[in-house]
Amino acid sequence: RAAMDQLPPELMKYVPERAPGVRPTRLDAAKAVIRDFISRRKTDRIGVVVFGREAYVLSPPTLDYHLLDTLVSKMNLELIDNAATAIGDATGVAVARLRRSNAKSKAIILLTDGDNNAGKISPEYAAHLATVVGAKVYTIQIGDGETAEVQDRFNLFGQPHYVKVNYPTNPELLKQIARETGGQMFVATDASALQASFHKVLDELEKTRFEASIASFEELYRFFLLPAVLLVALEALLHALVLRRFP
After folding, report:
1. How far is the C-alpha of 111 from the C-alpha of 90, rounded, in Å?
2. Would you say 47 and 97 are in contact if contact means Cβ atoms under 8 Å apart?
């Protein structure tokens, strides 16, 4: 799996213990950031959608944060058809969660380290649908889009061995989606930058009442590009609240 640098100390409690020298994966980092976000919520309804070749709702919007934390903590690449990635379909699911809302501000946060290569809805059309319902899309690219270090084995001394693997990303697509919908695009090359990008988006959302969807993330497993695996739909309660955001 694609590795990342050490997570910030406040996020390490969300990462399972690993053998010495084994670094957290990008999936570990994404899950840690989202779990930390969930732990800080009090009045937001949050739902979870999983997607690979297809997108489906794992949990509808709920205030049961303990359940959500459990679901996110157990997310893994075996839960989905991971032969492809349908970013457009996943974004469409997020739009569908928001289209009947009367909230003055709506947002979709898309975290990904890959390109769209499956699905019935193109990312461009999904972005158009987002504008129709008045939802901004904030995109976060995880990684530099060039190489990722992937643990392929342990050596004779029991130490993890990493190799660099090339894989495609599409930052121009993410910029286009964000620009068309009035959102912003961020690049996170390590866990700290991922956390910082997440903070910037949520600080932006703090300015208005909103409902949001957090679309997720894909990583490499050995030498294959696997699908996006996590879509977290975030909704604020529909009554007039100005909510504090993370942090």
Report:
1. 11
2. yes
CA distances from 92 to 44, 82, 117, 124, 131 (A): 21, 19, 15, 10, 12
Burial 5-18 (b: 16+ CB within 10 A, else e): eebbeebeebbeee
pTM: 0.75
Q: Where are the domains of the chain?
A: 9-236
Contact 206, 244 (CB under 8 A): yes
Q: What is the C-alpha separation between 208 and 170, in angstroms, rounded?
A: 30
How far apart, in whole angstroms, are the C-alpha atoms of residue 64 and residue 46? 8
What φ, ψ does residue 229 adopt, rounded to 5°? Answer: -120, -10
- Per the model's pLDDT, the better-predicted residue between 242 and 87 turns out to be 87
- Give the model confidence (pLDDT) of 117-148 as tens digits: 889 999 999 999 999 988 889 898 887 766 66
As a CATH number, domain 9-236 is: 3.40.50.410
